[in-house]
Write a structure and sequence with these properties.
- About 50% of the residues lie in helices and about 10% in strands.
- It is an alpha+beta fold.
- It has a 4-stranded mixed beta sheet with strand order 3-4-8-5.
- The N and C termini lie far apart (about 85 Å).
- The chain binds protoporphyrin IX containing FE.
- Protoporphyrin IX containing FE binds near residues 293, 302 and 442.
- Belongs to the cytochrome P450 family.
- Keywords: Heme, Iron, Membrane, Metal-binding, Monooxygenase, Oxidoreductase, Transmembrane, Transmembrane helix.
- InterPro entries: Cyt_P450, Cyt_P450_CS, Cyt_P450_E_grp-I, Cyt_P450_sf, Cytochrome_P450_fung.
- Pfam families: p450.
Length: about 500
């Protein structure tokens, strides 16, 4: 009886303490268990959908407490804008992570750097090199080149389309970042960067390391049983430093050999040259980090969209046909579509937009962390709270997108013009506020040209089964990691007309 009373007392205290702070309530959420909170409620698979289910029960902001750490998942686009855009000054930090700091990833990889001086420094580097005018002035030829490589690769080895999409992004980032040109059949750089990304992904899996929950464990000596996380962190740090140094040195070699092509590296080196002593060394250190960070943040994301493009076109032949008719009308069959054609290709533009909505590449964007206590709609949002926008849920709102699972570019067309209006997925797929993706212009231009040129010269269709009937492909995505990729699928890619192959080769 006494035990039962004590348990009830502690439960009541816990609930009161959890719910009340500064006289305000935390947003609603599942009740949880004393001490461990909602550790068992927190989804580990189909995460965005499960969060959306919680929101149906608790409302647009759902509160979780995991071992004392506050987490709020936002299920409403309007609330996300209100907090993450309008109050961006207070909502632009990133959560603490022992592993990210031990691996040094949070020292130089912009998406992971805590809000503050270092983040501002990196953000400036990205703004200067990847803003819209920079992309339009300097980097369109690079995108043309890697897209041309993609078309040639698809022509020669269509079945390996998935590998070719990865190549486009490796080639694009190496050429824009460092001025390094890689061959169409490159394996060396692709493997190096892919392996680096994989080992990084392996250490950032939430819940993998106990030290994230009990940071005091980081004081254990490396040889101590259970301190394997230190060895893992060292391996990752060494691997990244190695890739970072190798690429930087190679990029510099191109410049030393007289290359006059503008790259992110050449812009950075010009700035370093204006500094002296420690300031120059610091700028160089930050710049090498920013460059390798470009690959880490920019490749897998755009690759996931591009793979989804092949899946969508195989599944929706009528969309493909409509886009190709537009391309034939506007561009004709004697040349490839280019950036200048974009304004005259509203439907192709709409295909790109719908692609980014249909497969939400970062279903929960990246977590933001709150820098000071706040209040919204009568609810208390504590300093340090992790705030996650459920971007996937925004993209599936049936009020905004009727039949949200369907791939329908016509959602963005009004009077024959591309008018995404308040349905524009670009308003949320690239994140929010001061943390909004700085690579969005590069991603957009890359997706436009690769999709437009591929549609122009190829037909994409599902493979045939043993009976000669098209395989029924499904919109199935691997949604349980930070980036959502389509699950493996096959498709058939063939030149659209007899002269298409010559046009590609010309
Ligand atoms: C389809 C392509 C892409 C998508 C959907 C995407 C999406 C995102 C999202 C959701 C965030 C988090 C924003 C937030 O915290 O609110 C982000 C951050 C970031 N992205 Fe992208 N991204 C894409 C391509 C790229 C590219 C091509 C680059 C670079 C070349 C890039 C570089 C970055 C960086 C550096 C950050 C961290 C910004 C910061 O924390 O201040 N991204 N991106």
């Amino acid at each position: 009886m006494i035990i039962w009373l004590c348990a009830t007392f502690f439960l009541v205290c816990y609930i009161i303490l959890r719910r009340r702070k500064l006289g305000l309530l935390f947003p609603p959420g599942p009740p949880g268990i004393p001490l461990i909170g909602n550790a068992f409620d927190f989804p580990t698979s189909n995460i965005a959908r499960r969060f959306h289910d919680f929101a149906k029960r608790y409302g647009p902001m759902v509160y979780f407490n995991i071992l004392g750490r506050s987490i709020i998942v936002i299920d409403s686009y309007d609330v996300a804008c209100e907090l993450l855009d309008k109050r961006s000054r207070s909502y632009s930090d990133r959560p603490d992570s022992v592993m990210l700091s031990l691996t040094s990833l949070s020292d130089f990889n912009l998406p992971l750097i805590k809000y503050g001086q270092r983040w501002r420094h990196h953000r400036r580097i990205f703004r200067q090199t990847l803003q819209l005018t920079s992309v339009n002035t300097h980097f369109l030829p690079n995108i043309r080149q890697v897209t041309h490589d993609l078309l040639l690769n698809l022509l020669e080895k269509p079945k390996a389309f998935s590998r070719h999409t990865s190549h486009v992004l490796v080639a694009s980032i190496l050429s824009i970042g460092y001025g390094i040109k890689i061959p169409r059949d490159d394996e060396y750089y692709g493997n190096m960067l892919h392996q680096t990304l994989k080992i990084v992904e392996a250490v950032v899996v939430p819940g993998k390391y106990l030290v994230e929950l009990f940071p005091a464990l980081q004081n254990l000596p490396g040889w101590f049983p259970g301190a394997g996380f230190k060895r893992d962190a060292n391996t990752v740090r060494e691997k990244i430093l190695d890739a970072r140094r190798t690429l930087y040195e190679e990029g510099k070699k191109y410049l030393d050999a007289g290359s006059s092509v503008e790259t992110m590296l050449s812009m950075m080196l010009r700035r370093i040259a204006t500094l002296e002593g420690d300031a120059a060394a610091d700028e160089e250190e930050q710049s090498t980090g920013a460059l390798i960070g470009t690959y880490m943040a920019g490749s897998d994301t755009t690759v996931a969209s591009l793979k989804a493009f092949f899946l969508a076109m195989s599944m929706y032949p009528e969309v493909q046909k409509k886009a190709q008719d537009e391309l034939d009308r506007v561009v004709g069959r004697t040349r490839l579509p280019d950036f200048d054609d974009r304004d005259s290709l509203p439907y192709v533009d709409a295909v790109v937009r719908e692609l980014t909505r249909w497969n939400i590449v970062a279903p929960l964007a990246l977590p933001h962390a709150v820098l000071e206590d706040d209040e919204y709609n009568g609810y208390y949002i504590p300093k340090g709270c992790i705030v996650m926008p459920n971007v996937w849920a925004f993209s599936r709102d049936p009020e905004v997108y009727p039949d949200p699972e369907a791939f329908d570019p016509d959602r963005y067309i009004e009077d024959g013009q591309f008018q995404p209006g308040n349905r524009d997925p670009y308003a949320y797929i690239f994140g929010f506020g001061r943390r909004i993706c700085p690579g969005r212009h590069l991603a957009d231009s890359t997706l436009f040209l690769t999709c437009a040129q591929t549609l122009h010269v190829f037909n994409i269709s599902p493979p045939l089964n043993g009976d000669g009937c098209p395989v029924q492909l499904e919109a199935s995505f691997d949604v349980d990691s930070v980036i959502s990729h389509p699950k493996d699928f096959d498709c058939v890619i063939e030149p659209r007309w007899a002269g298409a192959a010559d046009l590609i080769k010309s």
